[in-house]
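Before the break, one more example. Copy the sequence into your notebook; we will annotate it together after we see the structure.
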Amino acid sequence: RGARHLVLAGRRGPAAPGAAELAAELTEQGASVSVVACDVADRAQLADLLANWPAEHPLTTVVHTAGVLDDGVIDRLTPERFARVFRPKVAAAWHLHELTKDRDLVDFILFSSFVGTVGPAGQANYAAANSSLDALAAHRRALGLTGTSIAWGLWQGPGIADHDGVEDRLAARGLRAMDPRGAVRAMDQVVDRDETAVVVVDVEWSSFATELAGTRSLPLLTELIGAREDNPDGPADGAAGTGVRERLAGLPATERTYAITDLVRATVAAVLGHADGSSVESGRSFQEAGFDSLTALRLRNRLGVATGLQLPATLIFDYPTPASVAELVYAELFGEDTGTPGNAAGEEVDDAGLKKIIDRIPIASLRQAGLVDALLRLADTAPGGEPTTDSAGSTSAIDSMDMADLIRAAYGQADASDRAEGPTS
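Here is what the structure looks like once it is written out:
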């Protein structure tokens, strides 16, 4: 925006990672740059910085960008964790406001967050801190001062979310990282329009709304995505759950079990940021898969939206594997008519049913059980036990068996192998 004299203030000043490189880059572009050590959340330090401001370059613009994360579900957010997040956001912004309100500022720009606008699970302290910045901008306007709060989404590159795969996890939830150059252009437009509080975010609304809809109504997003407005008591009788019941009601119990298990695995994959549910093992515990209190809450919320069920907050603790969660969902949707792979409600398991069972077993599990080798041996063995050598197109052993015979024979060979070689780990 044409600024040529910059003071970059931070707690570590010149010792901050990348500070020297940034100052050099800005200098090459024609700016004079001072990098100073000043904890803006410390009123005395900020007052000292402003008292010694060079008279030849009066302060005309304040841009407040500081922030820190300390995420956790509400019953684990102690006063200390709130204070840690509020200090650089709220205290620093308030000090900047009070100590510069008598100066003739052109712009007073606060970097807020989209988190304060939508309040996702696990970030109550960060949401409240950023909402305070939005309120401060409005307060300044009421006093006749300039003030703009921009609630940003995620930026690409180094920053507050640049660790532990946060960017990938947010992208899986519909929140995409923005090109910083585009974000800065957006900031220019916001300031040129003299806005008080705006949101600038790159988001895939339908995915992001799914993250929120499990626990609250969606009046804010309804106009953007046409989402249904849930009642405050939760989505127990919502349209999504009714759709699942109706879609699966006409299927055999075994098929319903498969469908619900696949839904749970796909939801687990989405929460963990995986491409699809194929990498999720139904019998592996959530703890082993890396779930924590936040991902547990997101799983519960997503499943609640998908099924229309009011699932317990302690879902993964009471039902520690995807398979046990699928059993719960099945029971809640269809009551006592429980489905178990293999034989449910008196059903006969045909070739197609067995194939579906095999399709849902990870190859690694088949290999560990010795079934892969057994199946390969069966493919080259005649019904009488002799290798098939006819190359003139006669029926092979694999073609002469139906699927049930093949699977049973494979299990038999695997059992024999186990007896001969001992148990596998």
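Strands lie at 5-10, 32-37, 61-64, 107-113, 148-152, 175-176, 197-200, 202-203. The radius of gyration is 30 Å. Try to locate both features in your own notes.
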